[in-house]
Amino acid sequence: MSTLKNKVQLIGNLGNDPEIINLESGSMLAKFSIATNESYKNKSGEKVTDTQWHNIVAWGATAKVVENYLTKGKEVAIEGKLTSRSYDTKEGEKRFITEVVCNEIIMLGKQ
Fold first, then answer.
1. Is 87 among the domain residues?
2. How many domains does the chain have?
3. Nearest residue to 98 (alpha-carbon basis) of 51, 57, 37
4. Looking at the domain assignment, is residue 27 inside a domain?
5. What is the pTM of this model?
6. In this structure, are residues 64 and 28 in contact, taking their beta carbons and an 8 Å threshold?
7. Per-residue pLDDT tens for 18-29?
8. What secondary structure, in 3-state letters, does 38-80 show?
9. What is the pLDDT of residues 57-88, one digit of tens each?
10. Fewest CB within a 10 Å sphere: which of 14, 31, 76, 105?
11. Is residue 42 part of a domain?
12. What is the span of the domain harbouring residue 86?
């Protein structure tokens, strides 16, 4: 059961081309976002679509797959863990961000 403590699975479409960062240490980092959609009917019976955006980061071999195969609009299934962190802007403001650290990607749809 310990593998279920912090596990995220999402299926969605990339909002933009991934940002690939090669670090001085030799590690590769891929950053991208995916949109998930959920539809429901409101009180009037009209169909409403709720879109949620998720920040995704991938490291190493997973980042290499992202670099080689993923582009804006591609549908993917990802699995990873939820993380939160903070950083300071150039103006000195503290910002918080929640990301999914991806450890597995499955490409869906037409390639």
1. yes
2. 1
3. 57
4. yes
5. 0.85
6. yes
7. 999 999 999 999
8. EEEECCCCCEEEEEEEEEEEEEHHHHHHHHHHCCCCCEEEEEE
9. 999 999 999 999 999 999 999 999 999 999 99
10. 31
11. no
12. 2-37+49-107
